[in-house]
Amino acid sequence: MERPLTKNIHIDRPPLNLKEYEMTGGYKSVRNALKNMSPEEVRSLIQESNLKGRGGAGFNTGMKWSFVPKGPDAPATKYLIANADEMEPGTFKDRLLLEGNPHQLIEGMIVSSYAIQATTAYIFLRWAYKEAALRIRQAIHEAYEAGYLGKNILGTELNLEMHLHTGAGRYICGEETALLNSLEGKRASPRAKPPFPQVSGLFGKPTIVNNVETLCNIPHIVNHGADWFRSLSYSEDGGTKLYGVSGRVKKPGIWELPMGITMRQLVEEYAGGMQKGYNFRGALPGGASTDFLTEQHLDIKMDFKTVSAAGSRLGTGTMIVLDDHTCPVGFVHNLQHFFAQESCGWCTPCREGLPWVERILLSIEKGEGRLEDLDLLSFHTTYLGPGSTFCALAPGAMEPLQSALKYFREDFERHIHDKKCPYNGNHIH
């Protein structure tokens, strides 16, 4: 089984320095692209590979790049941004790539910048990733010293300046336009779209924002081709995927596996199954802002299309498992508490609705709930759903709630009838 993203990552040793990375074939794709391919050819290759965005949206990466204005009338200044603001609860995949092999990200960003003709690139990093920041800075310095960054890279006309920017720590910065505002020194609130960032992004110039895992795939596609990349997958989505599992499983962790592996394989084979005395009740398949899937879904493929057809989203591919000793109400309340705190406050439904939802869930958890509270919660899942808010934060927050009401309604009703939580405080934290 090929693992292009993680083959050079070893948790028991520091990441490869530039010379070591070059010995494994590092920066070969930069030479291939800059010397043998036009920007249009790189974009077409990535589109043909069916690399879908690994940040959660699952949009074709090459197609996203194609929206950047081109030609003599297009703005000369363009930006590429790596979204490394990994603040989705339950998600820790990009951290492995950032700490384990920072040169892979830098190489992917150089090729991507060439493809869209960007001259400045930023890595927008989560504030808490201190070790990653140190290793990225060192890798950027080495890349400049070797001539992979700066003026006339490898003797070509490509000029690229790369900067590391550490965010202040806001979940909303995972939304690309809020990230752009933060990078400009403004309040991290999402922007109205259109215009989309590909046309008018950072400082009003064409901008591409891609996830770390997405960008790390670029060198391997350039080196090995679109057919090879698609062949790595068990589904129509190309490539491998970093899948994670957390919760009361025997071996929580993260693995690079073919896109389209089943939930059952992830939970039972790679995560070792449930811990002794615990049974599987459900899981959020792609981080905290996805709908629960249950035992009936264990044999579905973990790809964008299949998970969506099952009523959830693949999201980041990092699964949070709910066991039969953990209170679903407490589980969801904890998530809503997080989302309410992280609302940017820009739009009324999100700013006022999320704290309201959080208070209702707290009252139910404390045994003070009423049956009509369940109708109120259902109302909020619609009122805060897609199309009702300025960005996707509140709709994402509603996904675990609406699916919990669907699959675990008896737990909510039991709290209300018994006027207490029956799980003795076994909540997710």
UniProtKB/TrEMBL annotation:
PROSITE patterns: COMPLEX1_51K_1 (PS00644), COMPLEX1_51K_2 (PS00645)
Gene3D superfamilies in the cross-refs: 3.10.20.600, 6.10.250.1450, NADH-ubiquinone oxidoreductase 51kDa subunit, NADH-ubiquinone oxidoreductase 51kDa subunit, iron-sulphur binding domain
Family annotation (InterPro entries): NADH-UbQ_OxRdtase_51kDa_CS, NADH-UbQ_OxRdtase_suF, Nuo51_FMN-bd, Nuo51_FMN-bd_sf, Nuop51_4Fe4S-bd, Nuop51_4Fe4S-bd_sf, Soluble_ligand-bd
Domain of life per record: Bacteria
EC numbers: 7.1.1.-
A GO MF label: 4 iron, 4 sulfur cluster binding
UniProt keyword annotations, A-Z: 4Fe-4S, Flavoprotein, FMN, Iron, Iron-sulfur, Metal-binding, NAD, Quinone, Translocase
Cofactor: [4Fe-4S] cluster; FMN
Domain NADH-ubiquinone oxidoreductase 51kDa subunit iron-sulphur binding stretches: 329-374
Enzyme class per UniProt: translocase
NCBIfam families associated with the record: nuoF_fam, PRK13596.1
PANTHER family xrefs: NADH-QUINONE OXIDOREDUCTASE SUBUNIT F (PTHR43578:SF3)
Protein name: NADH-quinone oxidoreductase subunit F
Lineage, uppermost ranks: Bacteria, Pseudomonadati, Bacteroidota, Sphingobacteriia, Sphingobacteriales
